[in-house]
Amino acid sequence: MAIKGYKKPNKYKAKKTLVGGIKFDSIAESKYYQMLLNQNVSNFKMQVEFVLQDKFKFGKRTIRAIKYKPDFVFYDDEGNILKVVDVKGMQTAIFKLKAKLFSNRYGIEITLAEYDKRTGMFIETGAHDPKPKKRG
Predict the structure, then answer these.
(1) Which domain of life is it from (predicted)?
(2) Among 24, 28, 84, 118, which is least packed by CB within 10 angstroms?
(3) Are 88 and 115 in contact (CB under 8 A)?
C-alpha cells in the first residue's frame, strides 16, 4: 500500500536538486554543471540519448533497444564528440555493462567524474580504468 506524500529514498543517497530551472539527479551532478558554467564552458549538452543496441525481433516479440544517457557530452566546433562524462559516486553493474557497450559502439571511453567533498573538486577517471587498491 502506498503512503500519500512518501517518496522512496534513492538507493545511493543521491538527492535530486534544481539549479537554474534544470533538474539534476544528484547534488554532485549539479555542482559539475555549475563548475562548467563558472569556467564558461558552453560546448556541451546534457542527457543526450545514445542507442547501445538496436531493437530487434525475437520470435513474435520485439525486444526494446538498449539506450544510455550520459550526464554531459562535450563537442568540438564541428559537432564531433570530444568527451562523454557521467557524474558517479558508485558504478553499478548496469553502468559497467553500458559503458562497455558504449565504448564498443562509439569508440569513446566514458569519463567518470566523482566529487571529492574534502577538496570540493572533481576527480575524473576512465570508466575502464582499474580501481586503485585500498591499502590498510
Answers:
(1) Bacteria
(2) 118
(3) no
Structural domain including 106 reads 45-126
Is the whole-model pTM more than 0.70? yes
Residue 25 in domain:
no
Alpha-carbon distances of 91 from 9, 94, 136, rounded to whole Å = 18, 8, 23
What lies within 8 Å, CB to CB, of 43 at 6+ separation is 74, 75, 76, 77, 82
Residue 69 lies in a domain: yes
Taking alpha carbons only, the member of 134, 85, 91 closest to residue 110 is 85
The SS3 assignment for 99 reads helix
Position 57 in a domain: yes
Instruction: pLDDT band for 132, please (50, 70, 90 cuts).
Output: low
Outline where DSSP puts E strands in the chain: 17-19, 22-24, 44-46, 50-53, 56-58, 61-63, 66-68, 72-75, 81-87, 111-116, 121-126
Q: What is the mean pLDDT of residues 71-90?
A: 95
User: For residue 26, is pLDDT > 60?
Assistant: yes
Question: Is residue 12, in this structure, part of any structural domain at all?
Answer: no
